[in-house]
Each structure stands twice: as structure tokens, then as C-alpha cells.
Task: inverse folding
């Protein structure tokens, strides 16, 4: 009786497309290929969405997008790959009222259809990257 249940469970898994597989984080080389000379819409868990360009020279430039409009909150800084294949972005966030220096590191995990999740150092989802296009697409 037990062997019939196991066979039935395996058959059900095969018919359903098999068990879900956890996607693996990208390697440092893969992250560089994914980001270099490309622009992404980056939606942070806190609710902010930026349009960010990652230059091949390791520079970043971004503008805050509010309800489809670009505002004058600007991010400039640098990006690189650190130990354990973590993407680290160091930037100065400037607005009309303040300037702030930040650095964030985390793993990049592909989600399909040019969408990538970035997880912070504690393993929590920090941001969702959606590919916008090749080259710098951030307005001046």
C-alpha cells in the first residue's frame, strides 16, 4: 500500500511539472554581465522606485521616479562585486534638502523575464531590478 502511495505522489509531481527549485544567486561574473552598461528600474522594499544606470566603469547614476514622473532626487556613486559574489553599491543621495552617503551589499537572484531580486546581507528582499534597456536611459 505504501509503495502505491509513493508512486502516486511521484506521478502527481511529474504531471505538475516537478518540485519547485530554488533559484541560485548569480556569480560575480554573471552580475557584471547583467549590470554593465544597462539601465534598470529598481523598486526598493520601502516603496521608492529609481531608474538606475550601471556604467561599465563601475559608476551608478539614478533618479527617483514618482508615479511615472522623474523627480530631482539623484543618486550617484559606484558599484562593484565584493566577497562571496555580493553586489555592493555605494552612493550619495542628493535632493534639494539633504545629502546622504550609503553603501548596500547583497546577493542577486534571477526571477525570469529580465527581473532580478537583490537580497540584503541578512537574506531579506531589499530591491527588485527590472531591465529597462541597454546603455544610459536615465534622463539628465
Result:
Amino acid at each position: 500500500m505504501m509503495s502505491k502511495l509513493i508512486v502516486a505522489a511521484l506521478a502527481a509531481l511529474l504531471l505538475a511539472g516537478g518540485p519547485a527549485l530554488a533559484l541560485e544567486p548569480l556569480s560575480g561574473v554573471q552580475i557584471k554581465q547583467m549590470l554593465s552598461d544597462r539601465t534598470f528600474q529598481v523598486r526598493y522594499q520601502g516603496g521608492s522606485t529609481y531608474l538606475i544606470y550601471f556604467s561599465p566603469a563601475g559608476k551608478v547614476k539614478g533618479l527617483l521616479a514618482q508615479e511615472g514622473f522623474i523627480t530631482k532626487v539623484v543618486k550617484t556613486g559606484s558599484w562593484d562585486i565584493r566577497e562571496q559574489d555580493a553586489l555592493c553599491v555605494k552612493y550619495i543621495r542628493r535632493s534639494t534638502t539633504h545629502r546622504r552617503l550609503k553603501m548596500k551589499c547583497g546577493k542577486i537572484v534571477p526571477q525570469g523575464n529580465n527581473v532580478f531580486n537583490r537580497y540584503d546581507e541578512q537574506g531579506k528582499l531589499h530591491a527588485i531590478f527590472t531591465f529597462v534597456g541597454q546603455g544610459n536611459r536615465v534622463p539628465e
Summary: The CA atoms of residues 55 and 122 lie 27 Å apart.
